[in-house]
């Protein structure tokens, strides 16, 4: 009898896990907020932590710091969950917080100063990108060149071309105007093509 | 990061109507790396001219609305520079040419590293000053 009851409980538990795994992020958030099912946040954490950690490391370049920052990001997101209005997907919101947290850390603690860096690293030549097709580039080489850019430029390209953020979203995450975001993306892409040509085509 | 990034870098911009491109190529002498987008019902070209990043916006009929040019901070007029410096450190500067008038869109940060988007006209009148 005990064995039979345990089996039923086990199968009910599995069924609940399966049901929870099928829940949309927005449904999970709604249940956390309205029904105080705070344990469900673990599901969001498990689903997105690897990606957040990856983004943090890619910008901060320090494993320990990336781990700490990823934890801070999830704490911040949990505390502000009620402010998530569902205007964008939860992942976009979470990644936006991720970029914002990493760049703000670098600006504050590492004195990351884009205008100064840009002044000292003028692009020597604006290459016609219709001639220099970036589609030729291998993925590994692309990643190598991305690491040569200023972290803010790298973040801009990642948001635009990897995470498919809108310009509004990008400008909010990096705290720049929309026009500045558009022009900086343009510059970052131009620099990427220049550096690629210099390193791999000459 | 996935392969999506690499593919997306070559994303195609849209094709604007002929009246827009006609004006664009007669107005700008040597535009390079032009990308066209639709933004709030207007056509927008993001491109380089004389090594400056520029944005040209057109309405649906092909009328030029404004041109924005990203300029080095050192190229801001002194009077504008002095006004903005009284608020904080300048982080980005854009000139907006619209209907024969000139405006400046400046990003600055205060001592606590709060960032602001300031719009100022050529006479130094502040039109808006919003936290970013």
Describe the protein's topology.
The complex is a heterodimer of chains A (202) and B (132).
Chain A: H1 2-21, H2 25-34, H3 41-60, H4 63-79, H5 90-109, H6 114-120, H7 139-146, H8 151-162, H9 167-174, H10 178-201
Helix pairs in contact in A: 3-4, 3-5, 4-5, 5-9, 8-10, 9-10
Chain B: H1 3-8, H2 18-27, E1 32-39, E2 42-49, E3 52-58, E4 64-70, H3 78-85, E5 89-98, E6 101-109, E7 115-121, E8 126-131
Antiparallel strand pairs in B: 1-2, 2-3, 3-4, 4-5, 5-6, 6-7, 7-8
Structure notes:
The complex is a heterodimer of chains A (202) and B (132). Chain A has helices at residues 2-21, 25-34, 41-60, 63-79, 90-109, 114-120, 139-146, 151-162, 167-174, 178-201. Chain A is mainly alpha-helical. In chain A, α9 crosses α10 (178-201). With 132 residues, chain B is α+β, with helices and mostly antiparallel strands. Chain B folds into two domains: 4-70, Roll (Nuclear Transport Factor 2, Chain: A), CATH 3.10.450.360; 72-131, Nuclear Transport Factor 2, Chain: A, CATH 3.10.450. Chain B is 18% helix and 47% strand. Chain B starts with a helix and ends with a strand. At the A-B interface, α6, α7, α8 and α10 of A face α1, β1, β2 and β5 of B.
């Amino acid at each position: 009898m005990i064995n039979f009851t345990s089996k039923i409980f086990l199968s009910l538990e599995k069924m609940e896990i399966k049901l929870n795994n099928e829940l949309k992020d927005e449904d999970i958030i709604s249940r956390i907020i309205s029904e105080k099912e705070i344990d469900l946040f673990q599901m969001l954490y498990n689903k997105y932590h690897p990606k957040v950690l990856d983004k943090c490391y890619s910008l901060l370049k320090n494993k320990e710091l990336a781990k700490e920052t990823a934890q801070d990001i999830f704490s911040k997101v949990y505390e502000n969950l009620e402010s998530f209005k569902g205007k964008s997907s939860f992942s976009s919101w979470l990644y936006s917080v991720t970029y914002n947290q990493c760049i703000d850390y670098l600006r504050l603690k590492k004195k990351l100063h884009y205008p100064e860096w840009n002044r000292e690293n003028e692009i020597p030549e604006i290459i016609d990108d219709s001639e220099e097709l970036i589609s030729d580039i291998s993925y590994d080489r692309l990643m190598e060149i991305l690491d040569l850019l200023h972290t803010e430029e790298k973040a801009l390209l990642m948001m635009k071309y990897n995470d498919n953020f809108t310009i509004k979203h990008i400008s909010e995450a990096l705290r720049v105007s929309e026009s500045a975001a558009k022009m900086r993306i343009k510059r970052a892409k131009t620099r990427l093509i220049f550096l690629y040509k210099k390193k791999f085509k000459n | 990061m996935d392969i999506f990034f690499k593919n997306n870098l070559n994303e195609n911009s849209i094709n604007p109507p002929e009246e827009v491109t006609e004006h664009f190529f007669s107005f700008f002498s040597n535009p390079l790396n032009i990308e066209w987008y639709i933004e709030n019902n207007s056509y927008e070209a993001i491109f380089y001219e004389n090594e400056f990043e520029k944005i040209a916006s057109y309405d649906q009929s092909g009328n030029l609305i404004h041109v924005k040019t990203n300029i080095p901070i050192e190229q801001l007029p002194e009077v504008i520079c002095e006004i903005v410096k009284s608020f904080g450190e300048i982080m980005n500067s854009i000139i907006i040419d619209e209907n024969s008038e000139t405006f400046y869109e400046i990003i600055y940060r205060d001592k606590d590293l709060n960032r602001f988007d300031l719009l100022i006209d050529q006479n130094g009148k502040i039109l808006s000053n919003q936290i970013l």
